[in-house]
Amino acid sequence: MQVLQRTAFPREYESIEEVISGLQRALGLNTQEHDRAIGDYLERRRRRDGERVILEDDTVHVMISWRADRQTSLDFAQPIENDVFAPFQ
Predict the structure, then answer these.
(1) Higher pLDDT among residues 69 and 2, named by residue
(2) Per-position b or e across 29-60, b if 16+ CB within 10 A of its CB
(3) How far is it, in rounded angstroms, from Cα 62 to Cα 54?
(4) Do residues 19 and 55 lie in contact, with contact meaning Cβ atoms separated by under 8 Å?
(5) What separation in angstroms does the CA of 51 have from each of 12, 14, 43, 45, 74?
(6) pTM of the model
(7) From CA 17, how far away is CA 76, in angstroms rounded?
(8) φ, ψ for residue 18 (rounded to 5)?
(9) How many CB atoms are closer than 10 A to CB 19?
């Protein structure tokens, strides 16, 4: 695993309402039940640039890789007892 550098970027919005709407959509929130939590989060994370709202990004991106030529401890060639599909029989 390798932590990638310089992958964070701030997000710019036209208004605080746009930020809240975007977060609600991203989190799949359909009610205003979590608006207070979102507001508290934004108080800590946002800054203003004139009329625009900047939401700082602290996402950590990583690259995970593995070698396909190494054997694993799982033996996928053996059927599972009572397996309906039994793809490897």
Answers:
(1) 2
(2) eeeeeeeeebeeeeeeebeeeeeebebeeeee
(3) 24
(4) yes
(5) 11, 7, 16, 16, 56
(6) 0.54
(7) 51
(8) -65, -40
(9) 21
